[in-house]
């Protein structure tokens, strides 16, 4: 799951919809009224209570949402983002160095940026690594790390306090250096290289065969088919993200018996997909048959050498050799054999 980009703590707080304002205001009250409800059941209950509000009551929450939106837009107009943040206060994504296998590495930093502070454990680990390695020459890297962790846990409170004091000093050093640090162009406030917004290479989309069967759907997808029209009727004009949130809450609030209905639909759809895929592959194979095996074998077989047969005119006549000692087979046309002498 992708991690959200960090935000500037001083950035304006985003506005909420009418339903979210109602949900936040009534959560504690509904929780106290229904102490045995799970999170999903409470969300479903809150959604049902909101749907039962009268038009006048809903209008009051819509008015609050409009006021909250006006507040957000006004604060955003006066907001000046610090270096490394966009106009809404979200941190600008930094370059991710790719190593072997396409794994993401650490973002590139300004070499002149302050060195980050370390925790008490990391300071202990760095200080004791060589000593532990000499004392345990046969340990692997992972075993040495576990051994170091175990040794740190065995420290007395007084010994741990020493390392924690060093960590506090290192943090004070880092904070002081960061306060005086001026990032160069192209770097954020922490010294990370800011992305240059290069246009990514367009991926060639694979053209799907229109005759291919439609993929099987999951149980949650079948649930959304039934629930989406109902939620949109309850909350006209609801945003797509909020719609997904409510559907997820209601899905989690279903009982196993209610979920089984959609799981059965998903199982039937999977059978349908497998049957259609078998027919599709059979039709595809029939439309493009492979060459006959005999033809392939004949084409691959080595050619036999040509056997030439001499005609009867070049056959050796014993009478010719008897009467003409200089006779050469194949040249009998030069001699006229007229019989015995």
Automatic annotation (TrEMBL):
Gene Ontology MF annotations: DNA binding
User: What does UniProt give as the signal peptide span?
Assistant: none
SUPFAM superfamilies reported for this sequence: HMG-box
State whether keyword Nucleotide-binding applies: no
Which InterPro entries does the record match to this protein? HMG_box_dom (IPR009071), HMG_box_dom_sf (IPR036910), HMGB (IPR050342)
Residues annotated as DNA-binding region? 12-80, 114-182, 213-281
Q: Which UniProt keywords apply?
A: DNA-binding, Nucleus
- Name of one Pfam family that matches: HMG_box
User: Which SMART domains does this one have?
Assistant: HMG (SM00398)
Q: Where is the HMG box domain?
A: 12-80, 114-182, 213-281
Gene Ontology CC terms: nucleus
How is this protein named in the record? HMG box domain-containing protein
């Amino acid at each position: 799951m992708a991690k959200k980009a960090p935000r500037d703590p001083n950035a304006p707080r985003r506005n909420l919809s009418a339903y979210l304002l109602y949900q936040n205001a009534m959560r504690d009250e509904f929780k106290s009224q229904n102490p045995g409800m799970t999170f999903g059941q409470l969300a479903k209950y809150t959604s049902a209570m909101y749907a039962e509000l009268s038009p006048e009551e809903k209008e009051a929450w819509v008015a609050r949402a409009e006021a909250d939106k006006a507040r957000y837009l006004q604060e955003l107009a006066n907001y000046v983002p610090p270096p490394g943040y966009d106009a809404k206060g979200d941190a600008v994504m930094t370059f991710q160095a790719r190593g072997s296998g396409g794994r993401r590495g650490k973002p590139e930093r300004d070499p002149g940026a302050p060195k980050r502070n370390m925790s008490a454990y990391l300071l202990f680990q760095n200080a004791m690594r060589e000593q532990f390695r000499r004392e345990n020459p046969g340990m692997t890297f992972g075993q040495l790390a576990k051994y170091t962790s175990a040794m740190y846990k065995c420290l007395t409170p007084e010994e741990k306090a020493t390392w924690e004091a060093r960590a506090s000093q290192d943090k004070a050093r880092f904070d002081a250096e960061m306060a005086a640090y001026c990032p160069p162009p192209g770097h954020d406030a922490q010294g990370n290289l800011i992305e240059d917004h290069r246009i990514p290479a367009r991926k060639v989309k694979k053209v799907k065969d229109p005759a291919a069967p439609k993929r099987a759907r999951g149980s949650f997808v079948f649930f959304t088919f039934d629930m989406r029209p109902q939620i949109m009727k309850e909350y006209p004009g609801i945003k797509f993200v909020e719609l997904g949130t409510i559907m997820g809450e209601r899905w989690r609030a279903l009982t196993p018996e209610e979920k089984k209905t959609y799981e059965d639909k998903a199982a039937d759809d999977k059978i349908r997909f497998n049957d259609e895929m078998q027919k599709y592959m059979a039709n595809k194979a029939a439309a493009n048959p492979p060459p006959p095996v005999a033809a392939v074998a004949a084409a691959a077989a080595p050619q036999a050498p040509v056997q030439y047969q001499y005609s009867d005119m070049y056959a050796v006549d014993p009478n010719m050799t008897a009467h003409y000692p200089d006779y050469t087979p194949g040249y009998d046309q030069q001699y006229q054999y007229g019989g015995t002498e």
